[in-house]
UniProtKB/TrEMBL annotation:
Coiled coil: none annotated. Pathway: tRNA modification; N(7)-methylguanine-tRNA biosynthesis. Catalyzes the formation of N(7)-methylguanine at position 46 (m7G46) in tRNA. Pfam families: Methyltransf_4. It catalyses: guanosine(46) in tRNA + S-adenosyl-L-methionine = N(7)-methylguanosine(46) in tRNA + S-adenosyl-L-homocysteine. It comes from Olleya marilimosa. Belongs to the class I-like SAM-binding methyltransferase superfamily. TrmB family. Keywords: Methyltransferase, S-adenosyl-L-methionine, Transferase, tRNA processing. The lineage of its organism: Bacteria, Pseudomonadati, Bacteroidota, Flavobacteriia, Flavobacteriales. This is tRNA (guanine-N(7)-)-methyltransferase. CDD domains: AdoMet_MTases.
């Protein structure tokens, strides 16, 4: 993507009512106004709050929001030029139940309050295969602790990935740390049992993976 195109998208993001871009100092200083008040301030209802972490173009967030109008969805990514697409689509379709936040996933506890979130989706994250990149894997122990803080006690986690490494790593970690695996499937389109929203929604990159005959895996779990 050219720099001019990126700048255009950044400027357009600033005009969208569904895009939020807190400063790092607001988050680090724990003074972000919407923390603990997303439903009250932004969605104006008490519906369940669902996050998509590392949302990319926001395709999954938008599709879930269309599918479940009685839930609120927030896609989070540090790259605003990517989720511009999802924000623009949601704006054009006048969808009141989806928003986007530009921030690092590491700061998620500064964006949401304890027990504020009902469900989290992680879709096709970078598996960070090299050992020295373990700390960046979005399902490592440190990240799971962050998610547990913002999730309600019965909150649900979802991991959908084309990486067999990421699937195996996460499954092993969950079993090793005593978390509750509710469902696991290492090829969702060839094996029955996955929730309907796992197989009925496909991102652009997921369709490419499927054309390459890469199995798509899924884990649904609770953090204990």
């Amino acid at each position: 993507m050219g720099s001019k195109n990126k700048q255009k998208r950044f400027r357009e993001n600033e005009t969208f009512d569904n895009v939020f871009q807190p400063t790092r100092s607001q988050l680090v200083d724990q003074v972000y106004e919407h923390k603990g008040n997303w439903n009250k301030n932004v969605f104006k209802n008490n519906n369940p709050l669902v996050l998509e972490l590392g949302c990319g173009k926001g395709e999954y967030s938008v599709a879930l929001a269309e599918k479940y109008p009685d839930k609120n969805f927030i896609g989070i990514d540090i790259k605003g030029a990517r989720f511009w697409r999802g924000a623009k689509t949601a704006t054009e379709k006048n969808m009141p139940n989806v928003a986007f936040i530009r921030t690092q996933i590491e700061l998620v506890e500064s964006v949401f309050a304890e027990n504020e979130v009902d469900e989290i989706w992680i879709t096709f994250p970078d598996p960070q295969i090299k050992y020295k990149r373990t700390k960046h894997r979005m399902t490592n122990s440190q990240f799971l602790k962050r998610y547990k803080t913002i999730l309600k006690p019965d909150g649900i986690m979802n991991l959908k990935t084309d990486s067999e490494f990421m699937h195996g790593y996460t499954l092993g970690l969950l079993h090793g740390e005593g978390h509750e695996v509710l469902h696991s499937n290492n090829d969702v389109y060839r094996q029955d049992g996955s929730p309907e929203e796992v197989t009925s929604i496909q991102t652009h990159y997921e369709s490419i993976y499927l054309e390459q005959n890469k199995p798509i895996t899924y884990i649904r779990f609770k953090i204990n």
